[in-house]
Amino acid sequence: MSNTSGERPATSVQAVDRAVTVLEILARRHEAGITEIATELGVHKSTAFRLVGALAARGLVEQKEQRGRYRLGFALIKLGGANRTQPDPLQVATPVCEQLAEDVGETVNLAVYEGGGAANIVQVPGPAAVITQNWIGRRTPLHATSSGKVLLAYADSREQAEALEEPLERYTAATLCDPEALREELSTIFRQGYGFAHEEFEIGLNAVAAPVCEADSSVTFALSASGPAYRLTAQRLPDAAKEVVAAAEKISWLLGYLPPE
Predict the structure, then answer these.
(1) Do 63 and 98 reside in the same domain of the chain?
(2) Confidence of residue 7 (pLDDT cuts 50, 70, 90)
(3) Is residue 78 part of a domain?
(4) Domain assignment of residue 231, yes or no
(5) 4 lies in a domain?
(6) Which part of the chain is the HTH iclR-type domain (predicted)?
(7) CA 136 – CA 124 distance, rounded (Å)
(8) pLDDT, position 130
(9) What's the distance, CA 190 to chain centroid?
(10) Could you read off the pLDDT of 13-25 as tens digits, one per residue?
């Protein structure tokens, strides 16, 4: 097939070099659109789109829900964890999650901000769980879950604004869909260091979550404990919050985070 784009076909080495450059562009810009990436690479938009698509298929970049912009993906964190000088978040977090599930008796999840939602990457069922839904790899809404609200509370103002654009989907009668009310709740979560969800995503399900900090003080993960509302009651949630916060702080410390004195 002939190349009608006017651009010479890239060699394998050139394609790899361009892909790495895309990652460097996103690391520097935080996020960028296809046109911006193509301009920096000096290639046609179709070429940039193919490069970004290949990286997205491996989870190295992800597309934001709004305006088709891209940013670095979670797979880079896992690759970084292969470096012995850097702790692997999954290996670090899993035993802490197991202990937390034992302590609170409820299901524990570790979630990351990905693709406009909270993607669960670790799940440990509590000893009281009879039937546990598998949340691994599933994205849950930011505005209706404890993990999502925690991740939003520590996100930058632009990400918050995009996530709180109306209309926000209502999952239950308790789902908070008013952006202004949600902003107030996010401010409270940021101040107190944890957040709740009272049957906001699923009827009969309550949860509490806390932020996990990395060595550079960024909040990439949220640690949560969730359970049936008849057992993880509104009255019990504050006590569960203390345990979740303590576990989140332990994971943060293991990842190299040192809180300011």
Answers:
(1) no
(2) low
(3) no
(4) yes
(5) no
(6) 13-74
(7) 10
(8) 59
(9) 16
(10) 888 999 999 998 8
Q: Round the CA-based radius of gyration of the chain to a whole number and report it.
A: 20
How confident is the model over 79-86, as a mean pLDDT? 55
Domain assignment present for 261 = no
Give me the mean pLDDT over the 213-233 stretch: 93
Residues 106-113 have a mean pLDDT of: 94
| pLDDT, position 84 | 47
Residue 65 binned pLDDT confidence (cut-offs 50, 70, 90) = low
- Give Cβ neighbours of residue 98 (< 8 Å, ≥ 6 apart): 108, 124
The count of domains in the chain is 2
Q: In what order do the strands lie in the sheet with 107-114?
A: 139-140, 117-124, 107-114, 219-228, 205-213, 195-198
Domain shared by 102 and 174, yes or no: yes
Q: Centre a 10 Å sphere on the Cβ of residue 49 and count the other Cβ atoms it contains.
A: 14
Q: DSSP per residue over the chain, as a string?
A: ----SSSPPPPHHHHHHHHHHHHHHHHHHSSB-HHHHHHHHTS-HHHHHHHHHHHHHTTSEEE-SSTT-EEE-THHHHHHHTSTTS--HHHHHHHHHHHHHHHH-SEEEEEEEETTEEEEEEEE--TT-SS----TT-EE-TTTSHHHHHHHHTS-HHHHHHHTPSPPPP-STT----HHHHHHHHHHHHHHT-EEEESSSSTTEEEEEEEEE-TTS-EEEEEEEEEETTTS-TTTHHHHHHHHHHHHHHHHHHTT-----
Q: Can you tell me the distance from the alpha carbon of 74 to that of 60, in angstroms, rounded to the nearest whole number?
A: 7
The CATH number assigned to the domain holding 139 equals: 3.30.450.40
- Selected residue with higher pLDDT from 31 and 178: 178
Token pair listed for 109: 């999840």
Amino acid code (one letter) for 196: F
pLDDT tens track for 225-245: 999 999 999 999 999 999 999
Which residues span the domain enclosing 23? Answer: 12-73
